Amino acid sequence: MDRRIRKNQEAIMNALISLLTEKDFAKITINEIAERANVNRGTVYSHYSDKYDLFDKCLESHFEQLIESCQIVDEQEAYPSKASLLRTFETMEKNALFYRALLTNKGVPPFRAHLQEMMKQGIQTQIMEQNRSLDDLQKDIKLQFLSSATVGVIEWWLTHKSPYSVKDITDELWTLLELNQMIPKPDSLAQKIGQPL
């Protein structure tokens, strides 16, 4: 992609994010986005059909980054892992303005539901593979609990302007997940993988 096009798209997305921190999405206009991005209306429309398309592309871009942060980096790394959770928090901290705006802006479609659905999809296969003996009810409840708990902590952390460091929040959340048997303990994980830790 041409560097100038990428620069314009970034400026337009950043303008939208900035405006989302100030007013409801429904009240934001293309003119305001263009002015904030220091481009003309035509430039905005050359990249996006309307503000909803811009919002969707912005959301898609950030979700892709978030999903990538959750991915296993090393084949030896189990999922879910504390390292992947830490990377998720680091990514959210890097884009805190965006995520905070989505969680607090009344005019934005329910972002929390999208985030939780993404979490569910990301953990469903891995969690269920580690718990083959569970029946459907147990699997559904476990998945719902894990995704809700994780998203709830993320939402609280972001809307309270990250009162604790990424490392501290990751450590605490991971400990709670272990205590509630929502993730396998290191010794049981080693047995499942068949490797000593």
Automatic annotation (TrEMBL):
<dbReference type="InterPro" id="IPR009057">
    <property type="entry name" value="Homeodomain-like_sf"/>
</dbReference>
<dbReference type="Pfam" id="PF14278">
    <property type="entry name" value="TetR_C_8"/>
</dbReference>
<feature type="domain" description="HTH tetR-type">
    <location>
        <begin position="6"/>
        <end position="66"/>
    </location>
</feature>
<feature type="DNA-binding region" description="H-T-H motif">
    <location>
        <begin position="29"/>
        <end position="48"/>
    </location>
</feature>
<keyword id="KW-0238">DNA-binding</keyword>
<dbReference type="InterPro" id="IPR039532">
    <property type="entry name" value="TetR_C_Firmicutes"/>
</dbReference>
<dbReference type="GO" id="GO:0003677">
    <property type="term" value="F:DNA binding"/>
</dbReference>
<protein>
    <recommendedName>
        <fullName>HTH tetR-type domain-containing protein</fullName>
    </recommendedName>
</protein>
<dbReference type="Pfam" id="PF00440">
    <property type="entry name" value="TetR_N"/>
</dbReference>
<dbReference type="InterPro" id="IPR050624">
    <property type="entry name" value="HTH-type_Tx_Regulator"/>
</dbReference>
<dbReference type="InterPro" id="IPR001647">
    <property type="entry name" value="HTH_TetR"/>
</dbReference>
